[in-house]
Design goal:
Rossmann fold, globular, seven-stranded mixed β-sheet, 11 helices, alpha/beta
Length: 260
Amino acid sequence: MSTKEIQGKLWSIAPTYWSTYFEPIFIPMYKKTLAELSLQEDQLLLDAGCGSGLFSQMAIATGAQVMGIDAASGLLEIARQRNPRNNFLEEDLEAMPFASDSFHVVAGFNSFQYAGNFTNALIEAKRVLKPTGNLVIGIWDQPQFSESTNILKAIGELLPPPSPGTPGPFALSEDGKMESIFEQVGVKLVSKTKIACPVLYRNLEEGVNSFMGTGPAAAALNQVSKKTVENKIASALQAYKVGEESYHLQNSFLLFIAEK
């Protein structure tokens, strides 16, 4: 089974949990991206790994023309509901069904690290970009800078050890990793920004549901019961409890903007 098929199935297990509780964590990164790009109405943007379409929705609100692709059919269904007048396709980041030089912007948030080969995926993103177009990549910062890392690590304890090179949320987070790949594929880094993306869950149920919407939790369901996964998440969240019911986690993301 290909990486696209594996990841597509995992991220389609609980798409509503992802769209409702987890994806909003990225809003500060989305807002920063739109402020940096200053999209125009005649520009075409590809949301590569669009998930449930929140960034697409925000970009569409600026007047830009937006298309989205993702491997997860469950997330795509939500993206289409959010943005019924735009095209969202179930496609692979390494084999995009578009002509070369098609888009003014290709943006990928929390997506390229899940490609079977992320260098090939970035080469493909470059191919479909117009000359001088912008490639935008948003990824998790290094694990020690995000408290959500500890919840994901706890979930990982329920999984067998991953094979070397297995895609994961921090696959591109190592210092200098993205810069090296940009150099390999021949795009010019314009800016790199660290962005705080905190999250506040009003109660434990919201926090548990948020992480149940992630790929690692879906993978854990292949090994243990749903209750076991939920209990593992609930236990890991206790370190971040504030007040009587709320849970607060600080997270850090990296936003790269490059030019073809």
